Structure of Formate dehydrogenase subunit delta:
Amino acid sequence: MSSDTSEKLVYMANQIGKFFASQGAEKAPAAIAEHLRKFWDPRMRAGILAHLDAGGAGLDPLVRQAVERLREMAAAR
C-alpha cells in the first residue's frame, strides 16, 4: 500500500474518530470500529489494518483502539 493511501485512510479514520469522540473513551472505540466495519470497503479495512501492523503512525488513540477492535471483529468471523 502506498504511503499516500495510508495517509488518506488515517485521515478519514481520524475524522470518523473526531465525530464519535463525544461518546467518550468508553464507547467511542466500539462505535468507530462498527462504523468502519459497516461503511468501509473491505480493501479500506485491510489497508487500515496493514497500517496498524506497520506501527499505526498518525492514528488518534481512540481510533487506534477502534482499529484494534476491528481486527478482533474480523478474526471472530
Summary: The chain has one domain: 3-75. The CA atoms of residues 23 and 45 lie 22 Å apart. DSSP finds four helices and no strands in the chain. The mean pLDDT is 96.
